[in-house]
Design goal:
Elements lengths: L11 H4 L10 H39 L25
């Protein structure tokens, strides 16, 4: 099996090895700030995307006449039940 791990053991030599420096360096805070900024931008983008979808659906429903009910108008639902009985017995 191919072993690509360059060190014999996990020690302090490799614990602090990464692109922007050891764990307590300024690079950690920079990457954390970039991560939070990307997360917030993605969240705002998602909310705007979904709002756009809702507005387009609203426009389509209004164009079809499905949302033309006047404000304050009551919705009346009338239900009729028919009971058929066998009275010939």
């Amino acid at each position: 099996m191919f072993d690509a791990f360059p060190y014999d053991e996990w020690g302090e030599d490799i614990a602090g090895f990464w692109t922007f420096g050891p764990g307590s360096s300024t690079g950690t805070y920079i990457l954390t700030g970039i991560g939070v900024a990307v997360m917030l931008i993605a969240f705002v983008w998602f909310v705007r995307l979904e709002n756009g979808k809702l507005l387009r659906q609203q426009a389509a429903l209004r164009a079809s006449g499905a949302l033309d009910r006047p404000r304050g108008a009551a919705v009346v639902v009338e239900t009729t039940t028919t009971i058929i009985t066998d009275t010939e017995r």
